[in-house]
Amino acid sequence: MQVTFDDFKPLSVTCEWRYKNAFLVYDRTGHVIRDLSETFANIVVQAAAPQQTAFTSDEGSFTVEIGGCRFTEGGFDKGERFAKHCKDFIGPVTRQLRIEVFTRIGLRYIARKEFKALDEARANLASMQLVNLTPSKRFNSSDSPTELLYRWEDEAIGALFRLRAESIDIKVNVPPELRGHVSTVDKKIYGLTLDVDYYTIAPVELDQWDAQEWLLQKLRIVRKETDGILQGGK
């Protein structure tokens, strides 16, 4: 059965920016959050330390560190909303921390296609025949391959493509005083997880980079290249 990009349900999409140590993070993280509160709704700080602060809003989750920052959105639309949120996030960060050059910009897309059993996910992965190997048991393992990984890099750009058949435990423990009102969750999900990381290698100057334009372009490339790989390397 041929699988396409759209067969995978989006779980999260993340943009990460890395830069040389921005020591102003010790003094100006509060200013960053104040500026972001004008654009993002219901910001809540989850963890705060001198070198790293994590916080959430209705739109997604954020991390600001001495050497980098990132924004993650759960689920996904066609990309316009995510790209705008990234632009609205990175503006205050670069302004307050006085960042002019990124040492790395990464776009990471994670999605999953669910199956009724782990064996079905493994069989689906093996049936793709994305490498010139017979999908048989090797290294004295009792199972067929569970993961496929490719990486491409040149002087300017890199990409990592990963497919993994796996089982995921979902457990939600309910406090004793709420057990009569809320059900405890304890179940397994079986699926084929798609994980694509598309990133820059060469430095990127802030004044030569537009978040929305770059992200929308890279998201289109991720979709196109993923479909090509899943269809047997077309």
What does this structure look like?
There is one protein chain. With 234 residues, the protein is an alpha+beta fold. It has one domain. The chain has 4 helices and 11 strands; from the N terminus they run βαββββαββαββββα. It has helices spanning 25-36, 80-97, 118-127, 211-230, and strands at 9-18, 44-49, 52-56, 61-65, 68-74, 101-102, 104-115, 147-153, 157-172, 185-200, 204-205. The strands form 2 sheets. Strands 2-3-4-5-1-7-10-9-8 form a 9-stranded antiparallel beta sheet. Strands 6-11 form a two-stranded antiparallel sheet. A hairpin with a 3-residue loop joins strand 8 and strand 9. Helix 1 (25-36) packs antiparallel against helix 2 and helix 2 (80-97) crosses helix 4. The chain is globular, with a radius of gyration of 20 Å. It starts with 8 loop residues before the first strand and ends with a helix. The mean pLDDT is 89.
The chain-level structural class is alpha+beta
Using the alpha-carbon principal axes, give the shape. globular
Give the overall average pLDDT.
Answer: 89
Percentage of helical residues?
25-40%
| Number of DSSP E strands | 11
In short:
The chain is of the alpha+beta class.
Give short descriptive properties of this protein.
single chain, 234 residues, alpha+beta, nine-stranded antiparallel β-sheet, two-stranded antiparallel sheet, 4 helices, 11 strands
